[in-house]
Structures are given as structure tokens and as C-alpha cells.
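Q: Give me the 3D complex with glycine.
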Amino acid sequence: MFNKEVYIKRREALKKEIKSGIGLFMGNVDASFNYPANVYHFRQDSHFSYFFGLENPGFAGIIDFDNDKDYIFGNDFDIDDIIWMGVQPKVIDLAAKAGVVNTGQYEELGKMLSIAKMESKTIHFLPTYRGETVIELSNLLGISNADVKSGASEDLIKAVVKLKEIKSKEEVAEIEKAVDIAYEMHTTSMRMAAVPGRVEQEIAGTIEGISLALGGPVSFPIILSQDGQTLHNHHHDKVLEVGRMMVTDAGAETHLNYTSDITRTVPVGGKFNERQAEIYQIVVDANMAAIEAIKPGIKYRDVHFISARVLIEGLKKAGLMKGDVDAALEAEAHTLFMPHGLGHMMGMDVHDMEGLGENYVGYDENTTRATSFGTAYLRLGKELKPGFVLTVEPGIYFIPDLIDKFRSEGKFEDFINYDIVETYKDFGGIRIEDDILVTDTGYRVLGKPIPKTIDEVEAVMSNPL
Ligand code: GLY
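A: Here is the predicted complex, encoded as C-alpha cells.
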């Protein structure tokens, strides 16, 4: 945990945003995977963790906006718990670490909420993503499961986004720790991919172990495949072959739940061939152009299109696209090759606060989300502010089914050289992703620099593992 002043300050800041009622923050409970006592690794809810810091299952927090009081509810361990899990601090001692003096056993939470309901107080709560929490909220508040979904407080969502989107120094330091773990994961992945004939699973398992050994679990299921044209490929069953490129999209969590999210793509065997180097360099250029454009006040949607322009220019030079660059950009013809957005916010969730609703986090009254193919996947479009942490992750993918679909529809035929693109159907995909802090004057790439240029990648891979 951070020291208690951090959590006190966060709750004080929220009290300035929400003037009345009470805020109910549900921590997560243990979730079973194949029988009741066999549970997944416990992951605290990020919002509970942000305001109350405790990493224990079965806790809830209340912020009473009317009376300026905070509460933590949970159960003290009994002798059976102690026998199996060891001596644990009492709720009152845990709460003190978060600067909370008002505590109760969990059943007292229900009583407090009943009184609040009788007094017609507004009970603000956030959207949830776990079935257990939906059921618990339904019981606590006496509402149906459907009303739990629709009853989340928009005021609270907006206030939480406003606070959490600006990362403090200590949060940035945590994210950098997570990126530094990702450095070890990715350089290991590169060195292992220098050895053809290996099954992808061996690398995926090894780097997941690095995350656990150096910090916490991975921040999302590892994407690692020489079939990188499938954007989120979680199958790790292919045998690595020279001539293929291997995408590794992976990050770690720290013990305080802050995340990293990094992607690198490397040539199996360790040396880029001419065709790979040409396409790879375009993605590096798009990644760097986007990063260099980052500064307060620019809309991230504009950064997305700066990066897309570099992709179009490069693909035109390589003979895969044709025609006027501005017109191709206007038509969004690059979405054949990059059918996703440039990046997303990052923090305690790798897609930060996405559970609150993507548009609350990535868009605002001045920036409306596009509905067009590919661009609609851009999770962050709004104006950047100092303190935002986000990903920059352009890519070029040759997706045979998409190429066939667009060609048969005559889509973008003024801008795509389909005959040449056909010859790349065996190429796979490339994505290059970094984690960036928006500073007062521009940007900072977070963490220890992870090899990215062709020379840097080949140098690391010249030392196989
Ligand atoms: N890097 C995985 C994702 O953004 O979903």
C-alpha cells in the first residue's frame, strides 16, 4: 500500500466532486475456478483499491459525502481461517492503514445501507463486471440484477474518471516498475524467438513466470504468436518458423495493481528479411511519429491519424497502397491494415477504468467516438492532459479474410494495390506498443527502453536463450 495520506487525499478529492449521498465501493471476493475452495489468484477491484488500498477479499468501503466520514466493512478472521491461512490483522488495523477509523463487520454494511435507504439518501455505486458483485449489490440494495446495471451513478463514474485519469508521481513510479518488468519479459521473449523450432507456449509460459517472479501476475492474458495478424491471439501452439514474425503483447502488474502493456514483434531466428524490415520500419515510424506528437491539448484522435498517415505513406512507398495520401486518410483506407485504434488509457486496469464505460474514459463532450470501421475501436480520442498514461500501439496486419472481403466489395480500390497485397497474405502482423506519460510540455516514454529499432532487436536476438 501507499501510505495512508494518499488514500485520505483521494477520498477528500472525491468529496469535492460529489456533494451528497453516500458512495459504496465494493471490493472483490474470491472467485472459484473448478470447485469452491480452489480459487483464482485474488485481484482487488481497482476502484476500491484506489480509494481504500486494502488487498483483502470480501471488503467494502463507504464514503459518506453528507457527513464527511469514511467506513470500511469486512470480517475479522476466526480460528478456522487462522489455522489455514495464518494470523491476519483485524479489520480495524487494516482500515487504519488506509486512514479509515470507522469500521464494522461485513453484516453491518447491510444495516447502514438500509438506514440510508430509509432516509432516502442517494447511494452512489459504480458499474461492476463480476457476477458475484451484481448479486451482492442486488441483495444489499434490495434491487434486481438488471437495476444494478442501470442504477450505477453517472455522477460517481464521471468523478472517479476525473480523479483517476491524472496519475500522481507515485502512480507513475509504480507503472514504470511494471514497464521494467515488461522489459525483462520482452527481451527474454526476443532471445527465445531467436531459436526456431520452439513452441510458442514455451516462451509465453516463461515470460508469464518472469512477471510473477518480479512483480504480480500478467496484466492481461499474454498475446504471443507468429500469427500476429489475429490481433488478440491467445493460442500458443505454433512451432516457430524462420520467415515468420512473432508478436508478443504482454505486461505485468505490480503488487499495488499498476500495469504495463508493451508489444514487440520480432523475426523468428533473429534476422529481418528484406520484406519484413520494410514493413517493420513503417510501423516503427508510425509509433515514433505518434509518440512525438503527444502533448497536452492535442486530441488523441488526431495523434491516431498522424500515425495512420505515416502508415499510408510507408505502404504507398512499399507499393501496397496508391493514390493521394490525404484522400486515403480521409477514406480511412489504412484500416485494411490497421483495423484498431492507436491506444488506450492505462493505470490500475490495463484498459484503465474501462469497466466504467469506454466513452466516459476516452471521450467527452468535445470528442465523439467514430462509428466507422476500425476507427470505432479507438478507445481514447479526447484531448490529452498532463498526467495521462496511455499506450501507443500502431500495427500493420495482413488478415486474409479481411483482404478478401474488402477486395470483393471493391472497398478502397483507389488506394489499395490488391494484387500486391495478395502476396503478403502469409506475412502475419506487426504491432509495436509503448507506454507514455503526458507531461506538462510533451511526453515521456515510461520505463527502461525496450529494444525497438531493427538494429536493437537484432542485437538482442544475437544472444539466443
Ligand atoms: N495489449 C492488449 C490490449 O490492449 O488489449
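A quick observation: The mean pLDDT is 97.
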